[in-house]
Design brief:
279 residues, TIM Barrel, eight-stranded parallel sheet, RibuloseP-bd_barrel, isomerase, 14% strand, carbohydrate metabolism, Ribul_P_3_epim-like
Length: 279
């Protein structure tokens, strides 16, 4: 098995905070981060499922959907709180030296990203990733006379996330392109990770869209050490295209949780990243 990098929710020196000099991860070379999406797990055995994959993966990816920004409804702060309590319980019960408090990578596919920052922080989310499209639309709905520039709107969301003690990610739908506002957020280290959706957000099990990878390439060319996440249709068959473009954070739901040999599948994903991002 390829090395599993250590991320601990209770130890921020292990995080990917771009504006914090105490964080030493990812500062000299990119590392592979595998984040199985629990949406593809067996929810009747969620504790067992999560405890299994986190042994050989870095993060747990938690998809939150509100039935408005996307046409599906999934889970909310209650499940995140249960995951955090479970993680704490298992940590306290373990005697292994490599035990860790699970890093919960929470992807908000919701219409009002500002509304859920405090509840998710209280529940125990480690990273809060919001959609640029939703944040800009929320500003318009809240203030129809608003003259705020996109950058100011996005900065406010990012600042609020960091103020609540979480790592901040921003996500783009397949049709949304990179903008100067996004580049400014990265340049000023207000964003810790970019998520490029390789499917339409809302449902698991979709086919990988290779035609969005130009955004990953543009980001990697400009930011050699920026954590870039891809989500949707990632598997042994698509990892090379994603990693060759520059992605190093891989969300994989169906391909991991439904695999006959989960550790072997994760090893293939990590090896795919290592073949390209550290080449």
């Amino acid at each position: 098995m390829s090395e599993t990098h250590f991320f601990d929710h209770n130890d921020k020196t292990t995080w990917l905070l771009q504006g914090d000099s105490t964080c030493t991860v990812n500062t000299t070379k990119l590392i592979p981060v595998i984040a199985p999406s629990i949406l593809a797990s067996d929810f009747t055995n969620l504790e067992k499922e999560c405890a299994d994959v986190i042994r050989y993966c870095e993060w747990l990816h938690v998809d939150v959907m509100d039935g408005h920004f996307v046409p599906n409804i999934s889970i909310g702060p209650g499940v995140v709180e249960c995951l955090r309590k479970t993680s704490n319980k298992l940590y306290d019960q373990s005697t292994e030296k490599d035990r860790k408090h699970w890093f919960l990578d929470v992807h908000l596919m919701v219409s009002k990203p500002l509304q859920w920052i405090e509840p998710m922080a209280t529940a125990g989310a480690s990273q809060y990733t919001f959609h640029v499209e939703a944040a800009l639309e929320e500003e318009k709905e809240n203030n129809k006379e608003s003259t705020k520039e996109d950058l100011a709107v996005l900065q406010h969301v990012c600042e609020t996330i960091h103020a609540h003690g979480m790592q901040c990610g921003i996500a783009l739908k397949p049709a949304t392109e990179l903008t100067d506002a996004i580049f400014t957020l990265i340049d000023t280290k207000q964003v810790d990770m970019l998520l490029i959706m390789t499917v339409e957000p809302g449902f698991g099990g979709q086919s990988f869209r290779e035609n969005v990878l130009h955004k990953v390439r543009a980001l990697r060319d400009r930011y050699p050490l920026l954590p870039i996440e891809v989500d949707g249709g990632l598997s042994e068959k698509t990892i090379d295209a994603a990693a060759q473009s520059g992605a190093n954070v891989i969300v994989a739901g169906t391909s991991v949780f439904k695999a006959a040999d989960r550790p072997a599948e994760v090893r293939k994903l990590k090896e795919g990243v290592l073949r390209h991002v550290q080449a």
